[in-house]
Amino acid sequence: MTRLILTATDSGAGCLLGARIADTVIPLGFRFVWGALPSAVELETMLGPGSLDHFPQRRIREFHSQGMGILDLCERCEALELWFDPMPNAQLMLTQLLDCLSSRNSIVPKLTLFQSNVDIAEQRPEALFEWKPPGVNIRKDHLETASMTWRAYRQPTPQDWLGLLSKDLAALPQLRQTVLELLEELPMPATGLGATEMRIVELISGGNASPFDVFPGYQKPNTRRVFDYVELERCWTGWLAVRRLQYPASTRGRSPRKCIGTRPASRDIGTASCR
After folding, report:
1. Contact 115/87 with Cβ under 8 angstroms?
2. Which residue blocks in 135-254 are alpha helix, DSSP H?
3. CB atoms closer than 10 angstroms to residue 116
C-alpha cells in the first residue's frame, strides 16, 4: 500500500523521511501568518497541476510526471496521512488543506490526521515512537471545523476570528491555542503593541540587549500570558469601537493580522514566522 504524508515544513518532512514511515513525504511550506493571504486562484495553483514540478523525482518515484500536482498525488496514493504540529502557521495550513479536500470524496476516506503536540522538525527520527501522536480518521466534524476556521481567517476584519473562541474547536485540538496566539498579535489598547513586540520591549528594557538577546529563538520563549475569552472579547470590542477602525476594500481576502500589521505569531520570538 502506497502511503503519502503531507506536512507543514521541509525540516519536518526531513524528520519523517528519516523515520522511514511512509513512501513519500511532501512539505507544503505555505505561509499564512505573514503577509497577504493568497487568492483563491493562487491557492488552487499551490495544490493543483504542476505544483510538484519542482519536487525531486527520487522523492515521488513512480508517481513523478510533468504537470503532477499535490491533489493528483493524493488521488493516486492508497493512504494519506496529515502530520501537523502546534505552530500557528502549520495549523492554518491544516485548516486550509482540509477545507480544500472536503469536497473530494475520493480522498477524504483515505485521510488520517496525526496532530503532534511538539514541533515535528525538532524531533529525532529515531525517537519517532516516543513522540508519535495517535492517528485519527478524518470525520465530518474535522472538515466542518477546518472550513469554519479557514473562512474566519480569510475575513477582512478580526471579529469572526475572535468569534471562534465561542465555538467548539475540539475536533482539531491545537486550533484554539492558534486562535488565541494570533489574536494576541493584534495591537493592545494600552500600548498599540502585539504580544511579540511587547516581548521584544521587555527584553530590551533589561539593558545591554544585543540583537541575539532580542531574537533568541527557542532559548528564550515568549512567556506572555494567554488571555481568556471574556477578556479578549472585551478588549478587542472596545478597541475597535474606540478606534472606529475602517478596513479599506483593498484588504478584503487578507488575514485579520495583515489588516493591522504583519507580525510573527508564535511562542518563540524570531523563529515562529519561519515555521
Report:
1. no
2. 140-153, 159-163, 175-184, 195-205, 211-214, 229-243
3. 20
pLDDT of residue 267: 32
Rounded distance between C-alpha atoms, residue 135 and residue 130, angstroms = 14
- Asked whether 152 and 163 are in contact (CB, 8 A), the reply is yes
Give CA–CA dist 73/47, Å, rounded. Answer: 10
- CA–CA separation, 108 vs 59, rounded Å? 23
What's the CA gap between 61 and 24, in Å, rounded? 8
How does pLDDT run across 44-100, given as a tens digit for each residue?
A: 899 999 889 888 877 777 777 777 899 999 999 999 999 999 999 999 999 999 999
Distance CA 49, CA 162 (A): 35
Residue keyed to cell 503532534: 116
Predicted pLDDT at 162: 95
Nearest to 180 by CA among 119, 113, 234, 225: 225
**Which residue in this structure is represented by grid cell 489588516?**
259
- Predicted TM-score (pTM) of this structure: 0.77
**What are the φ and ψ backbone dihedral angles of 67, each rounded to 5 degrees?**
90, 0
The single-letter code of the amino acid at 159 is Q
The whole-number average pLDDT for the span 242-253 is 41
Can you tell me which residue has the cell 474566519?
A: 152
Cell of 32: 499564512
Which segments of the chain does DSSP mark as H helices, in order? 10-19, 40-47, 57-60, 70-76, 88-101, 128-131, 140-153, 159-163, 175-184, 195-205, 211-214, 229-243, 256-260
Nearest to 148 by CA among 135, 161, 136, 157: 161
Dig out the grid coordinates for 90 from the structure. 502549520
How far apart are the C-alpha atoms of 173 and 179, rounded to whole Å?
A: 11
